C-alpha cells in the first residue's frame, strides 16, 4: 500500500494570495499533480491546509484533492478551523489501511502556535491503540520530537513526553508522521520494546530553514511530499521534491 503525506498548504481564499516566498495555491496544485503520478492508495494531509481559516480556502483544497485517484484524509493544524474543514470534508480519528491502522491526532490548541494533546485526547489515543493491535501509523501536525530548530522546537508538541509514554505501551506503533516544521526530517525514537520511525515532510507552501535558531526560510528548497510504502512487515519512505 502506498501512502503519500502532504502538509502545510497555507491556502488563502484568494487563489492569487501570496505567501512569504510564493503562491501557495499554485504550488499546492503542482504538488498534487505530481502525487497523482505516484499512484497512491491513500493520501493524508497533516494540517495547516489554510492560512486564513476561510471556508473558501478549504473549498479550494477539496477541489484539488478530489482529483486524486484514491481516498484522502486531513487533520487540522494551528492555522486551521476544524468546523470549517468538517463542513467541506470529514475529519477522521482513524483509518483502516488493510494490514495497517492509521491514527490521526488533533494537536491544535485554539489561538496558539504550539500544539498539545492534553489528558482527554491522550486517553482517547490510548483507547484507540488498545482496540487495534495491527501495525500502526500515527499522523499529527505538531512535531513530537525536537527537530533541531530552536524556534520551531518551542512551538512543537508541548506534551511530547506524555505522547511517547502512551506509545511505549503499544509496540504496534511503527511510524509517526508530522507537519508544521516545513522541512524533511527522519529519526528513530527508541522505546522499551520498539523502534519508532519519526518523519517530517516538506510543505507544499514555503520551506523553513533546518537548524535555524530563529525563523528563516530555506529559499533553495522546493516544495515536496513524503511517500510511505507500507508492507506486511515493514515500510519504505522517502521525500520527493517538485519543480515550481
UniProtKB/TrEMBL annotation:
<protein>
    <submittedName>
        <fullName>Phosphodiesterase</fullName>
    </submittedName>
</protein>
<keyword id="KW-0479">Metal-binding</keyword>
<keyword id="KW-0378">Hydrolase</keyword>
<dbReference type="InterPro" id="IPR050884">
    <property type="entry name" value="CNP_phosphodiesterase-III"/>
</dbReference>
<feature type="domain" description="Calcineurin-like phosphoesterase">
    <location>
        <begin position="1"/>
        <end position="183"/>
    </location>
</feature>
<dbReference type="GO" id="GO:0016787">
    <property type="term" value="F:hydrolase activity"/>
</dbReference>
<dbReference type="InterPro" id="IPR004843">
    <property type="entry name" value="Calcineurin-like_PHP"/>
</dbReference>
<dbReference type="Pfam" id="PF00149">
    <property type="entry name" value="Metallophos"/>
</dbReference>
<dbReference type="GO" id="GO:0046872">
    <property type="term" value="F:metal ion binding"/>
</dbReference>
<keyword id="KW-0408">Iron</keyword>
<dbReference type="InterPro" id="IPR029052">
    <property type="entry name" value="Metallo-depent_PP-like"/>
</dbReference>
<comment type="similarity">
    <text>Belongs to the cyclic nucleotide phosphodiesterase class-III family.</text>
</comment>
Amino acid at each position: 500500500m502506498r501512502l503519500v503525506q502532504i502538509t502545510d498548504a497555507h491556502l488563502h481564499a484568494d487563489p492569487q494570495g501570496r505567501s512569504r516566498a510564493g503562491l501557495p495555491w499554485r504550488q499546492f496544485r503542482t504538488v498534487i499533480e505530481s502525487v497523482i503520478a505516484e499512484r497512491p492508495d491513500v493520501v493524508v494531509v497533516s494540517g495547516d491546509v489554510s492560512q486564513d481559516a476561510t471556508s473558501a480556502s478549504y473549498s479550494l483544497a477539496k477541489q484539488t484533492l478530489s482529483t486524486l485517484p484514491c481516498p484522502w484524509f486531513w487533520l487540522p493544524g494551528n492555522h486551521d478551523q476544524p468546523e470549517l474543514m468538517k463542513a467541506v470534508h470529514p475529519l477522521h480519528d482513524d483509518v483502516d489501511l488493510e494490514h495497517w491502522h492509521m491514527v490521526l491526532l488533533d494537536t491544535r490548541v485554539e489561538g496558539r502556535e504550539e500544539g498539545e494533546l492534553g489528558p482527554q485526547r491522550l486517553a482517547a489515543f490510548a483507547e484507540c491503540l488498545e482496540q487495534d493491535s495491527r501495525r500502526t501509523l500515527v499522523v499529527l501536525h505538531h512535531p513530537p520530537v525536537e527537530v533541531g530548530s530552536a524556534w520551531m522546537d518551542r512551538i512543537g508538541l508541548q506534551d511530547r513526553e506524555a505522547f511517547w509514554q502512551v506509545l511505549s505501551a503499544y509496540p504496534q506503533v511503527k511510524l509517526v508522521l508530522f507537519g508544521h516544521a516545513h522541512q524533511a526530517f527522519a529519526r528513530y525514537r527508541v522505546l522499551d520494546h520498539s523502534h519508532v520511525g519519526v518523519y517530517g515532510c516538506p510543505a507544499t507552501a514555503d520551506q523553513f530553514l533546518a537548524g535555524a535558531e530563529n525563523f528563516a526560510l530555506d529559499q533553495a528548497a522546493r516544495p515536496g511530499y513524503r511517500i510511505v510504502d507500507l508492507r506486511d512487515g515493514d515500510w519504505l519512505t522517502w521525500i520527493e521534491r517538485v519543480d515550481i
